Amino acid sequence: MKLKSVLLVLLFALAVFSRPLREPWKDADLLQPSALSIRLGAGEKPVILMVGFNVLYRAKHIPKAIYAGPASQPDGLALLKNGVKGVDPKSEIVIYCGCCPMKDCPNLRPAFKTLAEMGYHNVKVLELEDNFSADWIEQGYPVEKGSAK
How many CA atoms lie less than 13 Å away from 62 in the CB half-sphere? Predict the structure, then answer.
């Protein structure tokens, strides 16, 4: 009987943990780096929030990006909420991190979910498949250095 219970628990765990991660965003909510780069030089620009670690933001970040992270931590979520104060809920917001491969990022999902809970439904996730360096900097897209404000 005990072995049967252990096997059932193991089968349940395998079923739960082997499922692919369900993203809180839809494919239409993903934004390619090339598309954002073009928009940076165009007229109306989205609000850009860096929801990752301060050390990365200080090294290099997307021009005019607001430091609003890391969203995996309570202090980061507080920064995120503060970063969108006064932003019209209809505004387009782009979030990015780039600390690691997007599939493993600890910051994007909590940031996306929090913004949705706050009523922001025009949120795009910058699709940095590998990381910010490989998918943005090394592609020659614009960056600036500076500390979080």
Answer: 31
Fold for 22-139, please state it.
Oxidized Rhodanese; domain 1 (3.40.250)
Q: Express each pLDDT in 28-51 by its tens digit.
A: 999 999 999 999 987 778 999 999
Treating both helix axes as pointing N-terminal to C-terminal, what angle do 108-117 and 74-83 enclose, rounded to 10 degrees?
A: 50
Q: Is 85:125 a contact under the CB 8 Å cutoff?
A: no
Q: Is the distance from CB of 70 to CB of 89 less than 8 angstroms?
A: no
> Using CA atoms, how far apart are residues 89 and 85, in angstroms rounded to an integer?
10
Using only the alpha carbons of the chain, give its radius of gyration: 18
Residue-range domain boundaries for the chain:
22-139
Q: What is the pTM of this model?
A: 0.82
